[in-house]
Amino acid sequence: MEKTFDRRTDLSKYDNSWYQPGSRSKRFLWFIFGRIFINTYLPVPIRIKVSLLKLFGARLGKNITIKPKVNIKYPWFLTVEDNAWIGENVWIDNLTNISIGKNVCLSQGVLLLTGNHDYSSTGFDLIVKPIVLEEGVWIGAKSIVGPGVTAHSHAVLAVNSVATKNLDAFGIYRGNPAEFVKTRVFKK
Amino acid sequence: MEKTFDRRTDLSKYDNSWYQPGSRSKRFLWFIFGRIFINTYLPVPIRIKVSLLKLFGARLGKNITIKPKVNIKYPWFLTVEDNAWIGENVWIDNLTNISIGKNVCLSQGVLLLTGNHDYSSTGFDLIVKPIVLEEGVWIGAKSIVGPGVTAHSHAVLAVNSVATKNLDAFGIYRGNPAEFVKTRVFKK
Amino acid sequence: MEKTFDRRTDLSKYDNSWYQPGSRSKRFLWFIFGRIFINTYLPVPIRIKVSLLKLFGARLGKNITIKPKVNIKYPWFLTVEDNAWIGENVWIDNLTNISIGKNVCLSQGVLLLTGNHDYSSTGFDLIVKPIVLEEGVWIGAKSIVGPGVTAHSHAVLAVNSVATKNLDAFGIYRGNPAEFVKTRVFKK
Questions:
Q1: CB contact A18 to C (< 8 Å)
Q2: Could you give the CA distance from residue C174 to residue B176 in angstroms, rounded to a whole number?
Q3: For labelling, which of A21, A38, A187, C181 has a CA lying 20 to 30 Å from the CA of B49?
Q4: pTM of this prediction?
Q5: Alpha carbon B170 to chain centroid distance?
Q6: Contacts of B175 in chain C (CB under 8 A)
């Protein structure tokens, strides 16, 4: 074994005891109710979805669209403002706060990822960082937004791309990792 | 705020009233039956899947394979020709016509995407365009074919790629956006 | 039609009769039990998941984590060593052996793909090749490991990437196809 490589991952030492996302009973209840009413293909009325999410602590604006089969980790870490769309099969993996601004569109299959691991630590330390999607942002189908990313006003992330850094306002990004392609200009 | 950026997305103005994909009752019935018999891991016999899809208006050839957990938006916008394979977890998001030719293979997790939005309009106008996959095309696992794309005869799209433009006949493509890699040559 | 293109895919000639992954009854039973206890969002205790997988022939070490909604093709082709993590929505599509070493982490949505097709044969011949993930490897969220790939000790594959070739020990890879980015160095 080479000298530089004498340390190794040991997941038996993994310690995320500092991470306290909420009481066990609350999480268990959400796990059950979320699966039944939100992460489902049953045609649950939006009014019921919104009420349930608010009951579990989500801060939701008016006129929100939530399509079928949406997977939300912890609603009490979720803010969604007016007119935002959450598409089919979207996965909001919010170990910490995710803020979705007014008129944001998350297309089908989007993954918002707040968790990471420190791969330079043998204990594979958990890292959690919030995500902020400002007003008018569009995250394309099957795209992924990583931990700590802020997508500024009206940024666009193209289909199947990965945002690992902040996206500038009115910027259109694509690829893995996502790179700036051009500016979003409104014509009408 | 810069002058060019004085317009903003307003999803409360979103108007897709021109888009009429079929009667409410038909869509509701399909939503229920599709979930029970097609978008499921239950081992439903292919004969039943085919009959149900035809009942809802799909045009299906002979000897078609439909694996478990296939998500089809509207079967009445779907044509599948002889011997085609539709893999596990394939998502046919056909807001308009999708045509799948003879001997086409859609590998597991493929997404066919007919819908888009005009991000230069404040109303985020809906755009729908058909997809044509000609004879012998192979779409690799977890790849995405975008609106308006025609994949010509025997084109191949590699795993996890995104086709945003037409694919030439017998061309092999990869990446996001997919680019030509080499020509498909049959040896036997 | 050009001369070089006079051969075409004919899936009616597809012949995978040489591929014998186990008796029909065993596969059917696994299909049912796997869906109920493993490929589910129900909070099934890990002890039950492990026992069931072992009953179906998986070789599992100690202290393994299996998150909800894991899709395993055939447990009798699966080896998982101590402390390994299998994340939510991971898809282990093991038509043949997959070996997951000690302290390996498969993040959410990973796809391990052992099957391929010979696109140069008109019969679209099935190709299956094993996957080996050595000790300490981390496969990032929604990434894909292809047939025949060995990820050597402590290699890292970044989010949404595709490994089509072997990954060197302690190498960090990203993209589609995944390319070497830098070396993984442990600091603590």
A1: no
A2: 13
A3: A38
A4: 0.95
A5: 20
A6: 176
